[in-house]
Amino acid sequence: MKIGIFTDSFRPYTSGVVRSIELFSREFNNRGHQVYIFGPDYPLLHPPKEEGVFRFISVPAPTMPDFALPIPISTQLGKTIRHIGLDIIHSHSPFLLGSLGARAARRYKLPLVFTFHTLYDQYVHYFPFARQASKQVVQRISRNFCNRSNRVIAPSQMIVSYLQRIGVKTPIENIPTGVDLEEFTDLNPGWLEENYGVKPEEKVFLFVGRLGQEKNVIFLIKAFNTVLSNFPDCRLVLVGKGPQENTLRRMCRDLGIEDKVIFTGVLPRQKIVHCYASADLFVFPSVTETQGLVIGEAKATGLPVVAIRAFGPAEMVYHGEDGYLTDPSLSSFTTAIMDLLENKDLYDRMSQNAYKNVAAISSSYCAEKMLAVYQEMIEQEEHAPRYRFL
Fold first, then answer.
1. For 35-77, what is each residue's pLDDT tens digit?
2. Is 177 left (phi over 0), alpha (psi -120 to 50) or beta?
């Protein structure tokens, strides 16, 4: 099977979407399929050339300089698609290159699969103007793109319900991005101590994600500050970067806790996995996630999770079994954290359950489900009438 993936973000940029594409692509390649990526170039990062990766000229996003906006124009695209002999196109965005992939699928009579990775209407704070109107427009674009696709992939059942609620009629499959369990073996639990001076007696709370408004990190720092008043031997480690980083650093200074909060910046995968292994608790306050892959990664190292009950995280955490799901209040979130700090038996039980439960979303299992969707779409296209109304 030859699979064409069209995406508005790809490495060296780091995000949940990029990680999803990498994991699925690796699993597909391991099974003898061929994956071709059509993604942006990053003029400020100078990504290396990779076989099977086609880069489009891009410009830095005005409000997110580390993100690149690809220009969805190519005189060679049709020739490339025909030369490769693609069997299916999978778009990972309803915009730019994702939309280009949809047009290519229609033109060359290929099945189109679309993964709804992002609650796009929750990101309009990055728009420079008319944010409320932009929210409605973005939601309409998402709905229409879903309805032009042959199959929609949603990473959680709550997102399935959300898409149906906003008017998506195309069949939707619930397939999360899996966790590569082999990646979480032979780890160093002393890595944060060795590299960031964390003391052995300190309890480490870990957050991995973009430092942006949509991730609710200001809320997390407020919660951590409350916990510190009761448990002073704690550290908060924030892995990632984003537009709120300076605001968050200033907030820590104003609260007098800057020596208790570690900003690592973006780390390569081989270091992030050691962060998980070095932590005691994974804390995740985001309310905009369609899945929350980092929760699964945390569970793969036996970390109990405290997360706000919203969309994807509500299905990634088994409340009371391998972590806590809280309402979006500081008191609820901090109480859950302190409950785990105070009760070692509870903590140990949740840690063991985290190891056990993550097996249900292994990358291997999720890839098999995705390949089954591809095969079904290809077979339907082969038996469809050889005409299409445009």
1. 999 999 998 888 889 999 999 999 988 877 778 999 999 999 9
2. beta
Question: By the 8 A CB rule, do 73 and 91 touch?
Answer: no
75-131 pLDDT, tens digit per residue, is 999 999 999 999 999 999 999 999 999 999 999 999 999 999 988 765 544 554 445
Which has the closest alpha carbon to 1: 333, 292, 375, 353?
A: 375
Tokens of 93: 């965005």
Closest-CA residue to 330 (of 216, 226, 208): 226
Q: Which amino acid is at 192?
A: L
Q: How far apart, in whole angstroms, are the C-alpha atoms of residue 291 and residue 160?
A: 11
Distance CA 28, CA 314 (A): 28
Q: What whole-number distance in Å separates Cα of residue 348 and Cα of residue 189? A: 16
* Residues 6 or more apart in contact with residue 311 via CB below 8 angstroms: 119, 156, 158, 159, 162, 287, 288, 289, 290
What is the value of pTM for the model shown? 0.85
Rounded Cα–Cα distance for residues 270 and 274 (Å): 7
Q: How many helices (H) and strands (E) does the chain have?
A: 14, 15
- Looking at the chain, list the stretches that DSSP marks H as alpha helix, in order from N- to C-terminal side: 16-30, 77-84, 96-107, 131-148, 157-165, 191-196, 217-228, 245-255, 269-278, 293-300, 313-316, 330-342, 344-357, 363-382
CB atoms within 10 A of CB 292: 28
Residue 45 DSSP symbol: T
List of domains in the chain: 2-178+363-382 (3.40.50.2000), 181-361 (3.40.50.2000)
pLDDT in tens, 125-177: 455 444 556 778 888 999 999 999 999 999 999 899 999 999 999 999 999 99
Sign of CA pseudo-dihedral 251, 252, 253, 255: positive
